[in-house]
Design a protein that fits this description.
9% of the residues lie in helices and 52% in strands. The protein is mostly beta strands and 358 residues long. A hairpin with an 8-residue loop joins strand 14 and strand 15. The longest helix is centred in the first third of the chain and has 11 residues.
Length: 358
């Protein structure tokens, strides 16, 4: 019999963010003042004002894999007992992570001051597999599938130095945590699936954010966002969260530079203080990064963008190529902490991104 249960790993569930954007993650997972396009709806609706024209993504696809996925056999796909045994033998002692998402979006700017409307539909699936116990291998797994619908608007106040953003988001979630043993694989017991055995829940929530643009040569921006809690029970819910950010923009001829610093979860709602006080640590909540654009195309896009950052005290980096705004190709390399505190159990990952639109 397959053992299945509601996710009980409080820390891991809390820190599994939805809609982690390849661009933001390459910049240390910053985005409170620096995100652009529909990705702003995952970070701060006021950041929609960073779009100065309009953008339609017919489809945007993103895939992320932990480096450990490439260190074993033919892959981490499992449908039956034989494939589970292959997974155990190929990846014993490994922590595997895979994420896939596709989205459709529209962002339209109506004024240079920052009146912008955005809508986004994203389907995202993640899978985490820990292959443990060499003497009698077993698979400890967590699966989650989210159908996310978002709509938001940024509204300038006065001359546009201050922009306020509001957003409403709904999530339909399927979630499953289980352990699959060697004996179950030998007996060819069915491998659990989200569609058949998962806990399913849905709910909605709102976000209110702001960005203030200073009239200085450094073009410094301050921002913040409050996210309401989202009750998705019996699947894991999302607690309320307060984030703050600061950034600056500079242009040097054919080069453009953007730097950002985010402080996430200021009130420390995420994490498991009962399991380990360090799970509430400050460095789990610090994000910073830089983007350098080469040969600018529009006010916020370049032919080539290079990015670096620090996420949870780990280095991140990535690059993106824009082909006449019809095709965007991006790559990001980053590390995510899956342990109880930053530095305990790093998971190094690679993200690949492709968007087709206009």
């Amino acid at each position: 019999m397959v053992l299945a249960a509601v996710s009980s790993r409080v820390q891991a569930g809390d820190f599994r963010r939805i809609g982690v954007d390849y661009r933001s993650m390459a910049m240390g997972n910053t985005g409170i003042v620096s995100s652009t396009g529909s990705a702003a709806l995952f970070y701060n609706p006021a950041a929609l004002s960073n779009v100065f024209s309009w953008r339609v993504d017919i489809v945007a696809a993103q895939a992320t894999f932990s480096d450990s996925v490439f260190e074993g056999g033919d892959g981490a796909g499992v449908d039956n007992g034989d494939e589970a045994l292959d997974l155990m033998s190929s990846y014993i002692g490994k922590n595997l992570y895979a994420q896939g998402s596709y989205s459709h979006s529209l962002v339209k700017n109506f004024s240079e001051k920052g009146l912008t409307f955005g809508v986004n539909i994203t389907n995202e699936t993640i899978g985490e597999f820990q292959i443990r116990n060499p003497s009698n291998p077993e698979i400890s797994a967590f699966l989650r599938g989210d159908d996310i619908r978002q709509v938001g608007v940024s509204v300038p106040i006065g001359l546009g130095k201050l922009v306020v953003g509001v957003e409403y988001k709904t999530i339909s979630r399927k979630e499953l945590e289980f352990t699959y043993t060697t004996m179950q694989a030998i007996n060819n017991d069915p491998f659990p699936s989200l569609d058949e055995l998962s806990n399913k829940g849905s709910g909605g929530g709102y976000e209110i954010g702001f960005i203030y643009r200073t009239a200085t040569a450094a073009r410094v921006m301050f921002g913040g966002v409050w996210r309401s809690d989202m009750d998705l029970s019996p699947a894991s819910s999302i607690p309320a969260q307060l984030d703050l950010g600061v950034g600056l923009r500079q242009e040097y001829g054919e080069f453009r530079m953007l730097a950002a610093l985010d402080l996430r979860d200021i009130t420390r709602q995420l994490g498991s203080e009962e399991k380990d006080p360090d799970d509430k640590s400050f460095n789990r909540r610090v994000h910073c990064g830089v983007e350098v654009g080469v040969f600018p195309r529009t006010k916020n896009t370049s032919w080539l963008s290079l990015r670096w950052g620090i996420n949870q005290s780990y280095i991140t980096y990535g690059a993106e190529i824009v082909l006449y705004d019809f095709i965007r190709i991006g790559y990001t390399d980053y590390t995510e902490e899956i342990g109880e505190w930053a530095g305990q159990k790093p998971s190094q990952r690679k993200t690949f991104f492709l968007a087709v639109g206009f």
